[in-house]
Structures are given as structure tokens and as C-alpha cells.
């Protein structure tokens, strides 16, 4: 997995499909690349958050649950953040209706 910081710095790590986002945060924190990421150091592992395909991952989500291809490099962003953001109201309405949260669903019409 290639992790990208907000600064654009990257580092590659190897993880298993059973590893969760929380496990990854702890591993990265415990093995912080001092030479490359010294200026990006955080105070504790719990504030490290992974972003995959534009979505924050909850700490319990495993890589296997994401359906990532085995043997290929997956890119995720790693950001320091105390709490996950609340889902926006559009996403919540769509989920409650059982629909997709993407812009161009079947009920969308652009004139």
C-alpha cells in the first residue's frame, strides 16, 4: 500500500487483507518513517485516518472488506484528524431511500 500525506510525501507499506484501518494507523505510527516524514509526525496513532476513493475509513474496516486486488499497490491518503466527518445530508437522504450517493443516479436529470 502506498500512503500519501497531505504534503504529498509518500511511503509504501505491506499489509494483509485482515488488517483494519485502525491496525494500519497503529503500524504506521509505530514505524513512522522519521527520515522522510519527520515534519509530519503526530502525537498518537488514533488521530491517523485513511482515505480511500474519497471516503474516510472507519478504524474497523479491513482491507479485505474493501475488495482490494491482491498483489497490487493500492494508494490511500493518510491524514491526521481527531474525528471522522459527519456524512453530508445528501448522502444520508440517498442511503435512507436505498439509493446511491453518487450524483448521476437514475433519477438525476441535467438540462
Commentary on this structure:
The chain is of the alpha+beta class and 111 residues long. The protein is 20% helix and 17% strand. It is built from three helices and five strands. The protein has helices at 21-30, 34-37, 89-96; strands spanning 2-4, 10-12, 48-52, 55-56, 75-80. Strands 2-1-5-3-4 form a five-stranded mixed beta sheet, with helices on one face. The longest helix has 10 residues, at 21-30.
Short description:
This protein has 111 residues and is α+β, with helices and mostly antiparallel strands.
Average pLDDT score? 83
Helix content, binned percent? 10-25%
Physical arrangement of strands within the biggest beta sheet: 2-1-5-3-4
Number of helices: 3
Low-confidence stretches: 100-111
Strand content: 15-25%
Largest sheet: 5 strands, mixed
Radius of gyration: 16 Å
What is the H/E string?
EEHHEEEH
Shape: globular
Instruction: Please report the total strand number as a whole number.
Output: 5
Separation of the first and last Cα atoms: 41 Å
Q: Name the structural class.
A: alpha+beta
Give descriptors for this structure.
single chain, 111 residues, alpha+beta, five-stranded mixed β-sheet, 5 strands, 17% strand, globular, disordered C terminus
Produce the secondary structure layout:
Layout: E1 2-4, E2 10-12, H1 21-30, H2 34-37, E3 48-52, E4 55-56, E5 75-80, H3 89-96
Parallel strand pairs: 1-5
Antiparallel strand pairs: 1-2, 3-4, 3-5
Amino acid at each position: 500500500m502506498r500512503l500519501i500525506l497531505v504534503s504529498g510525501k509518500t511511503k509504501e507499506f505491506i499489509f494483509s487483507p485482515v488488517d483494519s484501518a485502525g491496525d494500519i494507523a497503529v503500524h504506521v505510527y509505530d514505524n513512522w518513517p522519521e527520515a522522510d516524514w519527520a515534519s509530519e509526525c503526530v502525537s498518537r496513532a488514533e488521530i491517523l485516518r485513511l482515505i480511500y476513493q474519497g471516503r474516510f475509513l472507519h478504524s474497523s474496516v479491513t482491507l479485505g472488506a474493501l475488495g482490494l486486488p491482491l498483489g497490487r499497490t493500492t494508494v490511500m491518503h493518510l491524514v491526521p484528524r481527531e474525528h471522522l466527518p459527519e456524512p453530508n445530508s445528501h448522502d444520508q437522504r440517498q442511503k435512507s431511500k436505498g439509493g446511491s450517493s453518487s450524483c448521476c443516479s437514475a433519477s438525476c436529470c441535467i438540462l
